[in-house]
Design brief:
The chain is α+β, with helices and mostly antiparallel strands. It contains 14 helices and 18 strands.
Amino acid sequence: MSHPNKHNETIFHPFAPVETDGIVLPLRFNNPFYYQPHPLCILAAEKLKEHIDKQTEWAHEIERGKMFGVLIAKDRKGTIGFLAAFSGILCGRNCHPYFVPPIYDLQKTDGYFSKEEKRISEINNRIIQLESSEALQQKKNEYKAALQRESSTLEAKRKFIKELKLRRDELRIKEVLSEEDKALLTKESQHQKAELKRLKESLKESSEKAREQLLELTNEIELLKLERKQRSAALQKWLFEQFIMLNAIGESKNLVDIFKNEVCSTPPAGAGECCAPKLLQYAYSNHLHPICMAEFWMGASPKDEIRCHGNFYPSCVSKCKPILRHMLKGLDVEENQQMLRMEATASKMRIIYEDEWICAVDKPAGMLSVPSRDDAPSVYSKIIQIRPELDESTIMIHRLDMDTSGVLLLAKDKNTHRALQAQFVRHEVKKKYIALLEGNVENDSGIINLPLSPNHEDRPRQMIDFEHGRQSITHYEVIERNAESTRIAFYPQTGRTHQLRVHSAHRKGLSCPIIGDPLYGHQSTRMYLHAESIEFTHPATGQRMTIQSPCEF
């Protein structure tokens, strides 16, 4: 697991004393999911950017966008320096000078992974070959023709039999028939039924023969697909077992063990290949003491996600949270400031309207709408404490993001809940939000129509998805422009998760993230998004009413 010291000389980059003069080291390691980059991380990031800019052969890939990370560390001599990492692979390679190596090198040509991957590739090529073969197409056509012939022949025969029956029925009605004639008609009917049966059997025999000939070819394909699936699953499990992650107290766990008790018990693809695990792994393996860490994006924003050149970002939740929970064990890590802020702000929640049927609260920024797995304070839990007589299943009608403040409407009984939800579904509820955006919005007003879907690899982030996303429509009006910001009013027509945040930040939207947005912009003391008013029809009185919470910024 450890790497020779000669690698340390090129991978661990000491700061010159003059560079760190006056910079105080952090007392605790930063929480990778909620942090402000330390000055040393900013300095290291600048040095890394300089190095990247010199690599002209990387220019095209960097231009497309890449996540990088730096880890500030101290060696045994007390020297302060940094490690650098990139997420995934860079220019088709896992290993580059200057950067920490991968935790497990998938590209070892003589390794089990490469050999098994080659075998899977061969199986896949054989499947493609068989599926595109003329023989298969011919057998498909023959089977299709046999089924069509069976169908058309039987249809014609049934039509003929029906005509004969009509003729027999007419004879029975119009003429006085002898017993002998009646017997002949009955015999004719029986004969036609027997002929139909024989025809069905003959045609079925012909189509079954064509089907069996087709199955001889398709069965081989299905067996190959099954083998491919089994080999791929086994290889993926084997691969996750090779990612043996260390922590500060010397414990080691592979990815299979790390994820086995998670909601998603199977590690996601690419787990262990992000910057943070790579950096910590190298530090532990080479007797370097981690001090703080940061990750930043370089290059163009991805097509669907929101990543801005030069911005620092938290570690991804889906891939990295379970891994880092293990790898940070033994380090003195900062408490999650977000959780602390939630606990502090919970007391600021206040009821701003209440009657027999509804209740409205002014939710402070940093408070959840509904409980989380961490049992953090929420509007739901707070209301239950204040109004224990309420039916717990009918309270929440809609939600506000944790970082969003403002009016949140609640129901006090099932009928009210049902009536208000119906208004939301019919888009009869009108909401107004006030936000401060980074930069200047070009147009004075407009409509943003960008479909949203969850980013399954990095929850809770949302992404633009024109193929599978749900329609998301936002109307906006600029209230005021300042030198570096825009005050804006949002009128969402739909209510998707993070709708206003993504529509603000995405380059196809306003390309101006909400100030303080920790996911799509730059973290600050708060996110400047406030639900100022909600307009709806009172489910009991039938009167149109508006509940407001004046914006404080």
